[in-house]
Amino acid sequence: MRRALVSKTKAMSCRLLNQTSLFHKPTNSYHHFLLKPSSFSLFASPITNTLPNQLGFRHWNSAAQFRCLGMSSAKEMESISYLSQREAAEIDETLMGPLGFSVDQLMELAGLSVACATAEVFKTSEYSRVLAICGPGNNGGDGLVAARHLYHFGYKPSICYPKRTPKPLYSGLVTQLESLSIPFLSAEDLPLDLSDDFDIIIDAIFGFSFHGTPRAPFDALIQRLVSCQNLHHTGLKSTVIVSVDIPSGWHVEEGDVAGGGINPDMLVSLTAPKLCAKKFGGPHHFMGGRFVPPAIIDKYKLHLPQYPGTSMCVRLGRPPQVDISSLRENYVSPALLEEEVEADPFDQFRKWFNDAIAAGLKEPNAMALSTVGKDGNPSSRMVLLKGVDTTGFVWYTNYESQKACQLSANPHAALLFYWDGLNRQVRVEGAVEKVSDEESELYFHSRPQRESNWSNVSEQSSIVPGRQYLQEKYKELEAKYSDGSLIPKPKYWGGFR
Ligand SMILES: Cc1cc2nc3c(=O)[nH]c(=O)nc-3n(C[C@H](O)[C@H](O)[C@H](O)COP(=O)(O)O)c2cc1C
């Protein structure tokens, strides 16, 4: 099939593969400055940085991750707020009193956060069988909701809910789960060794209002979780425990005071971490409950990480080191059949591009551009597709950049699109030419003024004296065109096709 498509066009080859490799996808559209001719790239986002003195340079691999994935450095973690038991209760009362939330709403959002955090770390391909052990209070309700969402995410949940709460909210949750044919197991029905039957155990027994010592039947259930995790630590089993807000049996402020309690693999702190979370030593600490309004943040002077994008959870602390060789995805894609592939590769590209848009993927127009200069060494970088038709794929850049110099020496390039989530990549290879000056002008003036200013200050692929130099250049330009007059396109900026 690949050969058939390649023969469709002489100028360009567009190869379609229904499998791919892993990479981190970028989060935004950035103006990009390379300060040193090396792999160290710094970014300024025209979206988040409106003023030159707010210029936000990012090192793609570290600073960007801090914003996107939560708090990672030890210093950032130290500054995070932890709630006492009293504060946690007060916040709940305020949410459900003057702030107008209902318990159902908060429970739904809390349970959804737990399910999202669980699914983010423990993929269904390896961890599909879930047991939610639910206590009699709100924490148990969060567990019931989490189980329902996990079901819809493709997991196979079972529930152990030994002390059912006879209130409409809880019986409604039970009905919802029963209507999905999710099994309810009594404590006696559970297998002797929980790790035989379950990959994930959601510990939703006790929450932040717990005090004292656990009573039957929960004391025995907690002990079973402890033995399950002891097996795990001997390397025999790999069942993981996810605790909802508080590891059950722990003192809400002091942690596992008696010793020998649960040490969950994941803790999902709701609203904000409670004091006991400082003692959590497991690899995955997340925060969920994305509903805390500024009124509460201000009143309790909370310092909490930002949730990335539209996510319902955010990681606290560094993700654990992973063995790169152990990373693997189970690609589940519909078959790609020759008879279903468009005869024209551009039509196929458009079809897949539309699929990527429909799937809500971020920056589906981001593509890796590879060029080879005089020295014969290839180099790749990301650029953004700004136009496509049967004459080719268009992107814009600085004509004095490394890529542009390489293209003037050797006007051939390869493009690579990768659409994570769809498990698709498109490879494009062909001859490259500059687009007409009129076309570049047209595109340049279609962009917001701020973006145009960045093009003017960007000295791509060259060494600049530093951040301040760029800030000042930007400021000068902003002042020069503050009357709204048209910013001229720099001569050194334009498109390639
Ligand atoms: C997602 C993403 C999109 C980018 N889009 C462009 C672009 O459209 N044009 C561009 O010149 N640089 C873009 N950049 C920056 C380039 O990757 C590169 O760092 C810069 O153009 C200098 O490359 P060079 O020195 O190899 O010429 C983008 C970077 C990222 C991460």
Structure notes:
The two termini are 26 Å apart. Strand 7, helix 9 and strand 8 form a beta-alpha-beta unit. This protein has helices spanning 2-6, 63-69, 74-78, 85-96, 103-121, 138-152, 168-179, 194-197, 218-233, 294-299, 345-358, 402-409, 437-446, 449-457, 467-480; strands at 12-17, 31-33, 42-44, 57-59, 129-134, 156-160, 200-204, 240-244, 266-270, 284-288, 313-316, 366-372, 378-384, 387-389, 392-398, 412-419, 424-431, 493-496. Helix 14 packs across helix 15 (467-480). With 497 residues, it is of the alpha/beta class. The strands form four sheets. A seven-stranded mixed sheet has the order 6-5-7-8-9-10-11, with helices on both faces. It folds into two domains: 2-61 and 344-496, Electron Transport, Fmn-binding Protein, Chain A (Pnp Oxidase, Chain A, Roll), CATH 2.30.110.10; 71-316, Rossmann fold. The protein is built from 15 helices and 18 strands. Bound molecules: flavin mononucleotide. Residues 26, 30, 32, 34, 41, 363, 366, 379, 381-384, 395-398, 401-403, 460-461 line the site of flavin mononucleotide (FMN).
